[in-house]
Amino acid sequence: MSASLHRREVVKALLEDRGGLLVVAGLGSAAWDCAAAGDHPLTFPLWGAMGSACMMGLGLALAQPKRRVLVVTGDGEMLMGLGSLATIGALRPENLAVVVLDNERYGETGMQKAHTGYGVDLAAVARACGFADARIIHKNIQVGSLRSSVHRGGGPLFFQVKVKAETPPLVLPPRDGAHLNRRFREALLG
Amino acid sequence: MPGKTSRARSAAAIDWPAAIHRVLKAQRVRQVSYVPDAGHKRLIDLCHADKHMAVVRLTTEEEGIGMAAGAWLGGERAVLLMQSSGVGNCVNAFTLAANCKFPLLMLITMRGEEGELNPWQIPMGQATPETLRLGGVRTFRLDRAADARATVGMAARLAFEGCAAVAVTISQRLIGIKSFREKR
Asked: Are A143 and A106 in contact, with CB atoms under 8 Å apart?
């Protein structure tokens, strides 16, 4: 099945009227998608440490059990941190959701095909690791329920969103990591 | 026999894992992540028994660096326990400390030192101090049980008050040499 969803539209739908949602964005296109939806102090975009996005989300979710935490990342970044799905699955934090924007490519390095393009089913991995809900999202009609699960569902949740292999215009978040750290903590902790 | 047991007895006389656990509590560390090591067994047990600590089993050590960063964003302090064989797994993730000034406290039990009986542990064990230094991690060595409180206390203050990446390497002489004869 060829993907019909546009990554920017999916992320915009997830982050519109975001309330108290705390967001970690994996490096590369996922971080640009979150920036395109509107730079926000409670979004922490990664510029490196590939494979770390889910674990940052876990540390944040444990520290802030009353807030919803969303990790938005790409399939390549998720593949590098596949073990973190087992770590999260063993703990089952109810306030954590992971959305993988799966274009079946390494988009930042020349659109090389990724494992997900050869049938590797990340949602099945998450389900096997004990996530409360883990699904592949293909269609626009599913995005509304994806949004409500992310904002109101239990957890941990995992959504592998099949998106078109496209390269939308670059929208870059701030690059100064210390600034991103400080502004996030100020916005959350005062 | 006397030589072998006297070292074990003198280390046991000072319960250094308990001393470290007390330091972590005093420093308000709420998240503990680890890839297990025999040298960390007692500290891991103490942390699991502590209802004020969230204890997280990792599949690989670098997961703990991302987790510590997330904990800090959420207002909590974290510690990462591992053996030296895991240090090499962490190198790329050290950028979180270097670029973002996330505090990072790692307690690392050493392999590959004097007395090591498994040659496969030698390369990473011997490379550990340099790997940490090149990764921008301030490193303090713990050789004596009596120094556990002071050394880990200093490391924790430097990490959390100075927003620095800090490691304590716990010497193999202190934790004992894995004999491959133990029955469990």
From this structure: no
- The pLDDT of residue B13 is above 90: no
Global pTM reads 0.95
pLDDT bracket for residue B8 (50, 70, 90): low
Task: Quote the minimal CA–CA distance from A124 to chain B in Å.
Answer: 18
Q: What is the pLDDT of residues A39-97, one digit of tens each?
A: 999 999 999 999 999 999 999 999 999 999 999 999 999 999 999 999 999 999 999 99
Judged by CB atoms closer than 8 Å, whether chains meet at A86 and B67 is answered as: no
Q: Does A10 touch chain B (CB under 8 A)?
A: no
Nearest to A59 among B57, B74, B95 (CB): B74
d(CA A150, CA A158): 9
CB contact under 8 A, B65 and A86: no
Shortest distance, CA A166 to any CA of chain B (angstroms)? 28
Q: What is the DSSP letter of B59?
A: S
Give B136's DSSP letter: T
Does B16 contact A at CB distance below 8 Å?
Answer: no
Evaluate whether ipTM surpasses 0.95.
yes
Query: Distance (Å, rounded) from C-alpha A113 to C-alpha B117?
Result: 44
Contacting residues of A for B74, CB less than 8 Å apart: 22, 59-64, 188
* Pairwise CB contact (< 8 Å): B71 & A44: no
Q: Could A48 and B92 be called an inter-chain contact, meaning their C-beta atoms sit closer than 8 Å?
A: yes
B34, B44 contact by CB (below 8 A): yes
For residue A59, give both structure tokens. 């540390």
Cα A78 from Cα A120, distance rounded (Å)? 12
Residues 6+ apart with CB under 8 A from A29: A7, A74, A101, A103, A107, A108
If pLDDT is split at 50, 70 and 90, which confidence band does B7 have?
low
